[in-house]
Amino acid sequence: MDETVAEYIRRTILKIPRDEIKTVLQKWHFLSETQLETINFHQIKENISQDVVQLCEENSAGIKQAAVLDIIYNHIYPDKRVWSVYQMNKTGEETEPFDVTDFKKKFKRQLRSALKNVTITFREYEDNAIWIRIAWGTPYTKPNQYKTSYVVYHSQTPYVFVSASVLRSNLPLLCQALVVASNYHDIREMELRSHSLNSLKDIVFKRYSQNFQTYRPRQLQESNVAPTNVDIRIISENRNEKERIQRLSREVFGDGIQPKLEFAQYKLETMFRSDPRMDVLNKKEPFRCLVKFSSPHLLESLKSLAPAGMADAPLSPLLTCIPQKARNYFKIREKKDLFPESFVNP
Amino acid sequence: GLFAHLAALEARAHEAAVKREEKEQQEERLARLRARVQELRLQRDELRAKVDLQHKVQLGKGGVVSDPAQPSARAVLEWKIGSVKRMLQVFYLTGISGKLTRQGVCFCISTAYEGTYLDSYYLDLLTKAEVQIQRHSVPAFIPLEQIAKKYLQTDVRRFLSVLSDHLNAYVGRRYQADQLQEHFSDLIKGTLQRNSLCNLLVFDYNVSSESDAFPYSARLVYGDLCRSLPTEVVVSTT
Predict the structure, then answer these.
(1) Which of A292, B6, B72, B122 is the most exposed place for a label (fewest CB within 10 A)?
(2) Is A205 an 8 Å CB contact of chain B?
(3) Beta strands in chain A (DSSP E)
């Protein structure tokens, strides 16, 4: 077995939390159950990885199998990477139904015709997601297994989720291969980025809970209205206001958990508004400013701002439009009248 | 041999398809009639309640003074709530229902396949100037934009009808594929290979669960996105 392959497998195993190594190896299906039985998964990770490499040596693992292990690792722990979303466009209608074998063939052929030295690995999952792992080389060097990009594509949708590597120069090649393989015309990057791949999917596939007003009979959650204080001497003075805020929150954010984003960034190119007598900024140039909201779970924290009393309800539409507009990077410019509007500008 | 087997399969499939069409038409008719029955029942209840109310008022005037206004008002209110709920249920059962909103209309398309109710999808339409879709919960692989471009401005009813056809056909195909996977897992090798729209199914299978081999390979193409039956089937030996 190649030294580089052994080292790559060893390093991948070390990234996995110790209690989960066995599950990952079982999903890999490369080592048999009897082989896995021989490993002591309670020793330190260094030793576990050495044992695994030993067994891989016995099975003559090659770069292909190591790449599959890497895809499996990234599929189980996708939140370790930052994902961006790309949107594809096409003008005509579907002629042939999407065939995944066809897609893979076209993708490989297109990418390899532009750059021969790449390792391409595919893996399909039950939710119609196709995972692609690409290890990039250069026209003169072999693929570097540590310089990888990952692509997740759900068939027959115009969205592609990409976790690119350091080599931004390879992105156009990747985009071209995707467009050709999926029978679309062009592709552009959306202003939507996050660590949580599933949340990005929820946003563009409209899987998050939107509150639609319909006549569909639904159970209303009575839990919030239940009396929390039994002591009748305590009167809630602001009950009406609290209920108004709850109602507005629910209308805007819906009932379920919000998709998980870590930040929202607003690039302001608006005029500074001050009292004309104070005469700040004579020049009347736009005041350039970048506002960034960060949070472990941005949308949930925005949802709880008004009920917690930290902001007035309703919240600014600039904050609440994030899932619907499917973007968390905004450029705000001056409109002709005095109200700064968000200009959707890629 | 193989040809006889294929011919038999073809004949069977044809029969099954014809039967299914008939059954579908019958059920559609049945559903329509049922909805009509509900309507008429509601009307009848309305009239009955009115008659009862009249009686109660008359009794109250002539009989014991026991505050008849209070209980009958409450009874009427309860009955009204009940009848509204039943009406809403009827709306839901018909498959397309809508509610006027501040800025337009919100439609709900409830899908079903052969009597099993499946997912519901929503569309918030703005009707100020031209009709626009403000937001929706339609999956990304349904060609919503194309359908909207064709029909949304000119004929909203047609738009909803075509979209409902697409959605019902999609959930129908998906439901059939799931059922096939579930009920025949011992005859199929592994899992079915499909795509997001479930309009291409490829799998290897056997006709008896006794042997371990999967000698046949099937490829089902559903060329019409508005139908839940395949347009092309290719069976071959592996």
Answers:
(1) A292
(2) yes
(3) 83-89, 118-124, 129-136, 148-154, 159-163, 186-194, 263-271, 286-294, 329-333, 341-343
**Residues of B with Cβ-Cβ distance to A206 under 8 angstroms:** 135-140
Supply the pLDDT for residue B236: 92
Distance CA A39, CA A33 (A): 10
CATH second-level architecture of A83-195? Answer: 2-Layer Sandwich (3.30)
Phi, psi of B225 (to 5 degrees): -70, -10
Residues 6+ apart with CB under 8 A from B148: B133, B159
Q: Which CATH number is A245-333 given?
A: 3.10.20.720
Tell me how close the Cα of B193 comes to any Cα of chain A, in angstroms.
9
Q: What pLDDT, on the 0 to 100 scale, is given for residue A67?
A: 95
Low-confidence ranges of chain A (pLDDT < 50): 219-225, 337-346
Residue B170: pLDDT band (50, 70, 90) is: very high
Instruction: Find the residue in B nearest to A96 (Cα).
Output: B223
Q: Is the dihedral of CA A129, B227, B134, A217 positive or negative?
A: negative
Provide the H-helix boundaries in B63-110: 69-94
Of A98, A154, A216, the CB nearest to B92: A216
Q: B166 CB near a chain A CB, below 8 Å?
A: no
Q: Is the ipTM of this complex over 0.85?
A: no
Q: In this complex, is the C-beta atom of A38 within 8 Å of any C-beta atom belonging to chain B?
A: no
Q: Are A101 and A210 in contact (CB under 8 A)?
A: no
Q: Given its phi and psi angles, is residue A266 left (phi above 0), alpha (psi -120 to 50 degrees) or beta? A: beta
The DSSP output letter for B215 is -
Measured distance CA(B75)–CA(A129) in Å, rounded: 55
A157 touches chain B (CB under 8 A): yes
Closest by alpha carbon to B13, among B238, B225, B226, B218?
A: B218
Question: Considering only residues 72 to 101 of chain B, which have any Cβ-Cβ distance to chain A shorter than 8 Å?
Answer: 85, 88-89, 91-92, 97-99, 101
- Whether chain B has a CB inside 8 Å of the CB on A156: the answer is yes
Chain A from 218 to 237: CB within 8 A of any B CB? none
Confidence at B67, pLDDT banded by 50, 70, 90 = low
Torsion sign across C-alpha atoms B128, B129, B130, B133: negative
How is A13-68 classified by DSSP, letter by letter? HHHS-GGGHHHHHHHHT-S-HHHHHTS-TTS-HHHHHHHHHHHHHHTT--HHHHHH
pLDDT at B162 > cutoff 80: yes
Nearest CB partner across the interface for B195, out of A98, A214, A324: A98
Query: Residue B174 burial by CB count (10 A; 0-12/13-18/19+): exposed, middle or buried?
Result: buried
Strand partners, A127: none
**B176-206: per-residue pLDDT in tens?**
999 999 998 888 888 889 999 999 999 998 8
Would you kindly state where each structural domain of chain A is located, as residue ranges? 3-63, 83-195, 245-333
Cα atoms in the Cβ-side hemisphere of radius 13 Å centred on A74 = 27
Write the residue in B89, B139, B197 that is nearest to A217 by C-beta.
B89
| Inter-chain touch A156–B197, beta carbons under 8 Å | yes
